[in-house]
Design goal:
Number of domains: 2
Oligomer: single chain
Number of strands: 7
Number of helices: 3
Order of helices and strands: EHEEEEEEHH
Distance between the termini: 69 Å
């Protein structure tokens, strides 16, 4: 997701472009994720301001039943990519914020790292295949969305046995 912005930089402050983003992002240890959308580029005094409106398809696993699913993640961000070379080819790297996104010396704007960072903060913490997912049986592991498993209900282990007995006592008192 790289864009040559030399022409935009040469036009001067206030020049704009809109680019279509259609690519993929490779994240270490994962399959490539498809990214689409648009990015508005605005020439600033320090570089290029990017206003991106993107979406990517994230392969996930349901946090309850472990079924595979694909989630569309919308990404919108505004970041300034700062130039590392000035108009007279002077080196500007010392004056840059170390956390800033930068244009490379050939004026190529690479959205990959910005998309990766905003993707990380936009993901759902516990994705679900559907809102009413019943999950897996804690005893036998059957997917409860496919039907009941037939396991006995009751205390899961000895640590809960005291509370299960108390529930029985309280139920008798109500009657």
């Amino acid at each position: 997701m790289q864009f040559k912005v030399f022409g935009l930089v040469q036009e001067g402050i206030g020049a704009t472009r809109t680019v279509e983003v259609d690519g993929s992002i490779d994240i270490e240890g994962r399959a490539a994720e498809h990214v689409t959308g648009t990015a508005d580029l605005l020439r600033t005094a320090a570089g290029v301001l990017v206003r991106a409106h993107l979406s990517l398809v994230e392969p996930e696993t349901c946090s309850r039943c472990l079924a595979p699913l694909e989630e569309t993640v919308p990404l919108s961000f505004e970041e300034e990519f700062q130039a590392v070379l000035g108009p007279e080819d002077e080196d500007l790297t010392e004056a840059l914020d170390p956390e800033a996104f930068t244009l490379d010396p050939q004026y190529v704007l690479d959205l990959t790292e910005a998309v990766r960072q905003y993707r990380e903060v936009s993901l759902v913490m516990k994705p679900l295949c559907r809102p009413d997912c019943r999950g897996l049986c804690p005893r036998c592991g059957k997917d409860l969305n496919l039907g009941d498993c037939g396991c006995e209900s009751g205390a899961e282990n000895d640590r809960w046995a005291g509370l299960a007995a108390l529930r029985g006592v309280l139920a008798e008192r109500k009657d």
